[in-house]
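Quick question, first post here. What does this chain look like in 3D?
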Amino acid sequence: MRFKLTTTTLLALGTAIIMSGCGAKGPTFSKIEKPEKDMGLVYIYRPSSFIGGGIYYDIHVTDQDGNDKVIGTLRNGGYFQYTSQPGEKEFWAKTEAKSSVTIDIEPNKMYCIKGEVGIGFIAGRPHLTVVDNKLCEEEIKDTQLSSD
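> Answer (accepted):
Ran it through. Tokens below.
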């Protein structure tokens, strides 16, 4: 018996192959940690989604003095954490459009930023939102460490 490949089957197979290389591949999330003494802790995560699954983006942080640095790459189904000195920080990402959130980080507190991908003209657009810790704890448990 011969197996006949249809256009739909080929497209599905090609999409699966492409998508498999774009998601987070690190260890599965295990637990929420407490911030280091006198520091703030920020979890940045992105639930797994087929829509925009092949898009990933760098997360930047800019402090009150305008210093900017990349703190990690957020992949589909991924997370990472960032320990920060207290103070106001802008977290942002950009593909063809920029999305940002600002958090006034307090000592010994934890914060969560949820990343998603929206439809763009050429590439998916990042969308960052600050979410409450309860929602974060529910959604982040299904992610893996987003490492390069």
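DSSP finds two helices and nine strands in the chain.
The mean pLDDT is 85.
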